[in-house]
Specification:
With about 130 residues, this protein is mostly helical. The protein is about 55% helix and about 5% strand. The chain contains six helices and three strands, in the order αβααββααα. The protein is elongated.
Length: about 130
């Protein structure tokens, strides 16, 4: 038997979508989601703890509405609402345009291209265009 989606989850998704559109953002931070949830709780007088908010985000991730990588420690803070934006970012990363001479980061670039792993210092050197 299918259970109905809780009203607070529906309102959370709507508010996230509206914030992203209003501010022209492709992603939001988990802290932003917590603020939205606080607003919803005060307006509806319904409780939502952090665990339930994460469950709602996982649900919407599974539905393909947003991307929430809760299992990846470095990505838990980010909720991506525009998948095309993410693809553009990844495409730019694959081209790996660096601010300084690539030879300095030869090992880091090789590791990224072969295993898809970015070092912190390489991330700091990648030039990304405005991807709005």
């Amino acid at each position: 038997k299918e259970e109905p989606i809780p009203l607070t989850w529906i309102l959370l998704e709507i508010e996230i979508r509206m914030l992203c559109r209003r501010e022209g953002r492709c992603y939001i931070l988990f802290s932003d989601v917590m603020e939205i949830a606080d607003k919803i709780m005060s307006e509806t007088r319904k409780k939502m703890d952090e665990r339930e908010i994460k469950t709602a985000l996982k649900f919407y991730h599974t539905c393909g509405i947003l991307l929430y990588f809760h299992e990846v420690k470095s990505m838990r803070e980010y909720i991506i609402f525009d998948v095309n934006w993410l693809f553009k970012v990844l495409a730019e990363l694959m081209q790996c345009k660096l601010r300084t001479k690539p030879i300095v980061y030869k090992k880091d670039v090789a590791q990224f291209r072969s295993a898809g792993m970015l070092s912190k210092r390489l991330i700091d050197e990648i030039e990304l265009p405005d991807l709005k």
